[in-house]
Amino acid sequence: MVMYLPEEGTLLDLPYKMNHLANNYGYYPQDCKELTCWTQHGLNGRMNSPEAELTSLPVHVSLQDRELWDKFSSIGTEMLITKSGRRMFPSCKVTVTGLNPVVKYVVIMDMVPFDNHKYKWNKDLWEVNGSADPHLPNRFFIHPDSPAPGEKWMQYPISFHKLKLTNNILNSNGLVVLHSMHKYQPRLHIVQSPEPCYPQNPGSYLRFTFPEAAFIAVTAYQNQEITKLKIDNNPFAKGFRDNGLNRKRFRDKESQETKDSDGQAKQDLTPMGQSQKDEDVTVSSSVDSRRTLNSSEVASSVPPNPFISAFTNTSTAGGPSPHQTHTILSLNNRHLNSPREARPSLHSLCAALPVAQSSCVQSSTGDGHLSTLPSQISSPASQTPGTSIIQPQPYFRTPPHPSRQCPDMELPLPMPPKLSRMQLPGSALRNLEMIPVSDYVSPRPLTNILNWIHSRALASGTSGKVLQNPPEPEQYLRGSDRELHPQIYPAVQKYIDQQFPLNSQTEHRSQMDYVSGRPLTEYYCDQQTGK
DNA sequence: TCTTCTTCCACCTTTGAACCGC
DNA sequence: AGCGGTTCAAAGGTGGAAGAAG
């Protein structure tokens, strides 16, 4: 299994994510514009069988609205975060193919730190402003349609437009908590619903990261170019178009200015930062000064077992800074001293895997067929060594996307028909009402999510009947209570117990801040007391 | 003084209920 | 009675601006 690269691209720093223990892994091309990830066809030819493992399927995920994302990323995407939560724009919308149509999956999105830095806006560019704050406990946004059969996920683009970002660590209303002035990237999880008949099977999953959708979380927009782009493209911001001249405030202000001093005042009044625009944007040279995350950093940002990391709900799950994660990674990869040394070639990586588990990033050739890579993997392209300044333009390198070579891959899926509540059949409404809303809206450790899913799977069972009293997800895997309740995923739990033995310091490991090594409760206290 | 954050505002889209005609 | 289309109001999303906080 090999792959072709984008025309201008080399297979630089192919980051990888692998999970030996859970037979699960996923890859993503960190430095390519290609946001499409493939997994290999299962060699056992089970892909069409109902019991086919998720990891054996040729799952393909691609980010929609790529042109829009390109526009934003070329300037330096910023996402507003507010106390009450703010939607992302552009929102993450992905198409997925290659799933087993009849198997149920859960689709989850979270945000992981892009790097180990904190940023500040200095006049017209982003600068590194120290080290990142400890990553907050991960918050997963479960797609409200979860779990649903693969057929449904593949039918329409999966939209996460309702995902909201906040900086309020106390807000648990389904918001993803981020630090302001930190850079994040979205990450997608596709989790196969646990098989009700085999509770020992934790269910496989895949993860995809979208570096092109990376953004800096801000409480107020810094780059006027970003503001302009948002206004121009976000329908909710239409009121700010036409330089905001149609806005009452500006109309009033303008009329007032006219009264005060006609003539000169009018000239100065250029709404929507017109005057600022003139002084805006120092166009940089063609040098890509983006502080790239090399593959080793990415690799080290990926815990040896992402499934576990999600379980432990630590900063690792949220993907703390690559360096910070390395301590956890080293649990299984002590030989990976130097991140760059640690990067195996794609081939060696695949060779190291059992055949049936091999997985590669693929791209598609113009004829729409999967093709094989040249035998040697290109060496990592030279990267600009860690410059501390991010130029506003060009913010990201933008090599031609392979999909442009392969129009088939860009074919947008039809948007789902809009259904009002009135149009839903009664059975569907009853089903919806049976779902404890808080369970899929509220962020929670993936443990609970999966257990909840499992409980629902059990509840529906093979007979399709619904239990009267499905178990509460919270009753599973809660700290020291674990022994009191049956474990849904004993193999995974065993691994956690081995890697993160409980003691007085780590008893609440799911709440640990692995960056500072302190319990997050302490971190919260510090936040409250202003330390 | 400067940077970052919070809050409020007006404008806009989306949503869903009510209404009407067939 | 049921269905489909239209209208309208409420809810909620948006960036700007001013002021607070550190």
Automatic annotation (TrEMBL):
The keyword Cell inner membrane does not apply. It comes from the Eukaryota. This is T-box transcription factor TBX6L-like isoform X2. GO terms for cellular component: chromatin; nucleus. Residues 237-327 are annotated as: Disordered. Residues 68-242 bind DNA. Residues 310-327 have a biased composition (Polar residues). One of its GO terms (molecular function) is DNA-binding transcription factor activity, RNA polymerase II-specific. Gene3D superfamilies: Transcription factor, T-box. SMART domains: TBOX (SM00425). It is found in: Nucleus. One of its GO terms (biological process) is epithelium development. The keyword DNA-binding applies. Residues 63-242 form the T-box domain. SUPFAM superfamilies: p53-like transcription factors (SSF49417). Pfam families: T-box. Residues 239-265 have a biased composition (Basic and acidic residues). The gene is LOC113078504. Keywords: DNA-binding, Nucleus, Transcription, Transcription regulation.
